[in-house]
Design a protein that fits this description.
Elements (H helix, E strand, L loop, with lengths): L5 H15 L10 H13 L4 H8 L3 H13 L3 E6 L2 E9 L1 H22 L4 H23 L2
Helix pairs in contact: 2-5, 3-4
Length: 143
């Protein structure tokens, strides 16, 4: 690991994330609400208890957030077929539209930035996609 400056990598990722999360200008929602929508888009339908570890909120705060998203028509709650006492949360069509339009907006804005890179820089960036994906997998595997 001596050939990798992890401190600089961390700073660069933090700076990139700061810019990246601000790219979309479509319907402003707070970070926690967007995180729930994106988690359900990728992993849903889920029980509320399954969202707790991914969203890093206490259960009362998450319960309140989910209720607001449901009231806003962005989430739907259905009975869990494996346990009649529990509910599964999933995106409504309006919630799906927000997630997908934000993604499309980010793709367009990031593509415009990538177009400004040199061919060598684009090649390096392309080569890092699999490595960043692997880091994400490793992080998800940690308790």
């Amino acid at each position: 690991m001596s050939d990798l400056d992890v401190d600089r990598l961390t700073t660069v990722i933090e700076d990139f994330n700061t810019i990246f999360i601000r790219l979309p200008s479509i319907r402003r929602l707070n970070f926690s609400a967007l995180s729930v929508l994106h988690t359900l888009d990728r992993n849903g339908p889920l029980r509320l208890t399954a969202l707790l570890p991914t969203e890093q909120l206490k259960q009362p705060a998450l319960t309140s957030l989910v209720a607001k998203l449901e009231d806003d028509g962005l989430l739907e709650r259905r009975p869990d077929p494996t346990d009649g006492r529990a509910s599964l949360l999933s995106l409504s069509p309006a919630g799906q539209e927000i997630v997908h339009s934000r993604h499309a907006n980010r793709v367009a804005k990031l593509a415009a930035l990538v177009d400004r890179l040199t061919p060598d820089e684009r090649a390096v960036l392309a080569g890092s996609i699999d490595v960043l994906h692997r880091l994400t997998e490793l992080a998800e595997d940690q308790p």
